[in-house]
Amino acid sequence: MTASTQVGTQAANGTAPTSARRRSADGGTRVRAGNASAPYLFLAPFMIIFGVFVLVPAVYGIWMSLHNWDFFLPERPWVGLGNYLELFDPTSLTAVQFWESMRATGLFVLFSVPFLVVIPLGLALMLNRVFPGRTFFRAVYFAPYVLGVAVIGVLWQNLLNANVGLINYYLGRLGVTEIIPWLTATPWVWVTLVGVTVWWTLGFNAVVYLAGLQGIDTTLYEAARVDGASRWHEFWHVTLPGLRPVLLFVVTITILASANMFGQSYLLTGGAPSNETRTAIMYIAQTGFEQFRMGRAAAMSYILCLLLIGISALNFLLFRRQEKN
Amino acid sequence: MATLTPAPASSGAMTDGDVRHVVHQRPTRPWTRVPFYLVLFVLSVAFFAPILWMISTSFKTAGDATALPPQWIPPEFSTDGYTVLFSDPQAPVLRWLANSVLVGVAHTVLVLLTASLAAYSLARMTFPGKNVAFGLIVSTMFVPGFVFLMPNYLIVDAFDWLDTMWALVIPGAASAFGVFFLRQFFLSIPGELEEAAVLDGANRWQIFWRVVLPLSTAPLATLAVLSFLASWNDFLWPLYVLFNPESLTLPAGLATLRSAYGTDFPAIMAGAVLASIPVLLIYAFAQRYIIAGVSRSGLKG
Fold first, then answer.
1. Domains along chain A?
2. What is the CATH number of domain B88-296?
3. Residue B300: its chain A contacts at CB < 8 A?
4. A-chain residues near B127 (CB < 8 A)
5. Which helix (H) or strand (E) holds B145?
6. Residues 41-60 of chain A whose Cβ lies under 8 A from any Cβ of chain B
7. Mean pLDDT on B38-55
8. Has the keyword Isomerase been applied to this entry (chain B) (predicted)?
9. Less packed terminus of chain A by CB within 10 Å, N or C?
């Protein structure tokens, strides 16, 4: 729709903007400066990069996944759904390894998400109170997040070293005589991956919750207080319902982030023991970038992507169903 | 959700000026504060101690680094870790540092420029195809990045950018989040300002450059800080598109140090400290922008 037709339809509907403020609400259509190509010129630099590195790859990836696409081979024969079917063929080694990596990703999501949803909420409730030093504590809890996984990885590799690491030493002082193999044996590898991730990213979710808490109408708390509600009642009947959209967002984004886990496994456990903690992204990267079987790797990414879309949709539906009840 | 639209120009109030809004505070007796502060204190030690350990270890001798009981203050202050690191031709850390800075700055400038231009046209202009463009941009925010890994590797290779900084700067520069984030802010700018500029004879570019951008320093700073942090900390992509030790960034370099140095912890921790200094400094100075950016991006859902 051009600027003039839009103004025209608005007039015909009797909704013609009466003040400049109203007009600006739909994007300042009355401002006529420059020519008709101006919007496209403004959009062009972004769209060129976006097109080449986001839109084209989204389609190109599907094309790749339908070919036997080895980076170093001149011939990339069409295999149709071959790459996908292979991933569902229980006799193929690739399928076995792929689903093993999907299992690792699934376990990580299952173990990490509850902690990453609940602990930051508790922390946000504490940090939402008014007390001296609040800003300082917020800053401290968020700090590890800005460090990035490469630093986190080498740091915890040191701290969790079975023999000379700090953690085992202090556990020993507390009476734990066993030397815990944090980086090499189950179930400890999982405790490590989840624990380090919680330590690293907890501040992020806490800040999102804090913003949500500040959006809750304070008169609801006053009303609850007048009715003699206890703290627990306040939390259950005012805070939680008020946080529902934020909670949905935190759960969704945490599942996606955990399903994307790569660096922690790569740097801390290296997939040990025997590929048990090799996550899906790690296996996809190895297949594509180390074995150069890129068609296969692309097919794997689409399967993982579809699964994640499904989980997000399910998550969304569950929240909506609850809302109705 | 009311907070979806960013606060107008002086949005400094977003982060910590919000104390007065918390009127539902129950009166607390002083003694109930003791366990509260205790929990906060214990937690903050748990959060900060590992970072202090990293710094402390980087100044130890190799022997002291693995000595038990652990020494929080290096018994013998040593810069061996840094010397080893800086003198190893296989690990040109200063080069990695320069690469990371260069990539981070170039990436950030490009994100700010392309995203603000696109966001401006999407927020303040009407043109055919606008909704399609905006829909496409927003919908890609929900596609996980790993889907683009394989095809982008081939595209970058086709441009002959493998093992160069271009591979890190350009592909990630199309920030759908940046466009969305700035558009929300631009929508809140009063149209009168633009109209006044038009009466003064300004064209679109002049309005954008002289009116809109100067009003948007807070969201631009937020986006700049978030983009720089993301670029600085990026790990998976640099790990696979860079090969030559000379062309690595610090995060990718750290991964190679880890395997090359084994348990020479002072050297590895020195590398980790080096990779942390810039982000910790930025965090110290731009904390309110980072936290505001995270909470705003969090509220888009």
1. 3-65 (no CATH), 89-324 (1.10.3720.10)
2. 1.10.3720.10
3. 249
4. 2, 36, 39-40
5. none
6. 42-43, 45-47, 49-50, 52-58, 60
7. 92
8. no
9. C
pLDDT of residue B115: 97
Q: Do A284 and B149 lie within an 8 Å CB cutoff?
A: yes
Confidence of residue B10 (pLDDT cuts 50, 70, 90): very low
Question: Is the predicted ipTM greater than 0.90, yes or no?
Answer: no
Average model confidence (pLDDT) across chain B: 86
Q: Do B282 and A218 touch (CB under 8 A)?
A: no
CB crowding B169-184: b at 16 or more within 10 Å, else e: bbbbbbbbbbbbbbbb
A233 touches chain B (CB under 8 A): no
Single pTM value for the model: 0.87
Tokens 């504060």 sit on residue: B33
Q: Please report the pLDDT score of residue A54 as a whole number.
A: 95
B245 contact A CB<8A: no
* Boundaries of every domain in chain B: 3-12+20-85, 88-296
pLDDT, residue A319, reads: 84
Query: How far apart are the CA of A143 and the nearest CA of chain B, in angstroms?
Result: 8
Give A143's contacts in chain B (Cβ within 8 Å): 47-48, 51, 280, 283
Mind listing the pLDDT tens digit for each residue in A78-107? 988 999 999 999 999 999 999 999 999 999
The CA distance from A91 to the nearest CA of chain B, in Å, is 26
- A316 touching B (Cβ < 8 Å): no
How does pLDDT run across A26-42, given as a tens digit for each residue?
444 455 555 788 899 99
**Segment B165-204, tens digit of pLDDT:** 999 999 999 999 999 999 999 999 999 999 999 898 888 8
Contacts of A88 (CB under 8 A, 6+ apart): A95
Q: How far is CA B263 from CA A157, A161, B68, B245, B271, in A?
A: 10, 9, 15, 21, 13
The values of phi and psi at residue A70, to 5°, are -95, 130
Alpha helix stretches (DSSP H) within chain B:
13-16, 33-58, 62-65, 80-87, 93-124, 130-140, 149-158, 166-169, 176-187, 191-199, 204-206, 213-215, 217-233, 236-241, 250-261, 265-298
CA distance A167 to A44: 53
Q: Does B268 reach chain A within 8 Å, measured CB to CB?
A: yes
